[in-house]
């Protein structure tokens, strides 16, 4: 069975102030951590692939390891600006990078593969943006207005009811965009 692919960002496990800063609907950091772990594991199974686009945890390394050990999936980490503890548990990640460009097999994509640029931060333009490459990001906690003319998307938990978002869900959101290739022939 082919693993599912998911994207997410900005869990901020162990960060009490994120509840206030991002107006998260949790009573305490413990409640937030518990609910984020539960929602992660509701969607992600053991062999699913997860691209986490940064800011996993603000807790200490031991706490972060304890949380990561409870999460399903094969996690790939794109570093955010709050990765001190996650970087001290490198064995939990398939890899850790600053940036990546991935290809997802998709028979509906023009070449049979969808190219996706992964970075913690939103970009206005990126490699292949004029050719239909998507850009997924976190960091902004839903504070940036979505640009319907751009194939970029905030995959942070604050934007998706505190769940990771699947490739198929991302694809459906991208289909709703009004982006057009800038060099396409005009009728």
TrEMBL record:
Entry's family note: Belongs to the metallophosphoesterase superfamily. YfcE family.
InterPro entries (alphabetical): Calcineurin-like_PHP_lpxH (IPR024654), Metallo-depent_PP-like (IPR029052)
Protein name: Calcineurin-like phosphoesterase family protein
Domain Calcineurin-like phosphoesterase: 31-142
Signal peptide feature range: none
Transmembrane spans: none
Xref: Pfam families: Metallophos_2
Coiled coil ranges: none
Source organism: Chryseobacterium defluvii
Lineage of the species this protein comes from: Bacteria, Pseudomonadati, Bacteroidota, Flavobacteriia, Flavobacteriales
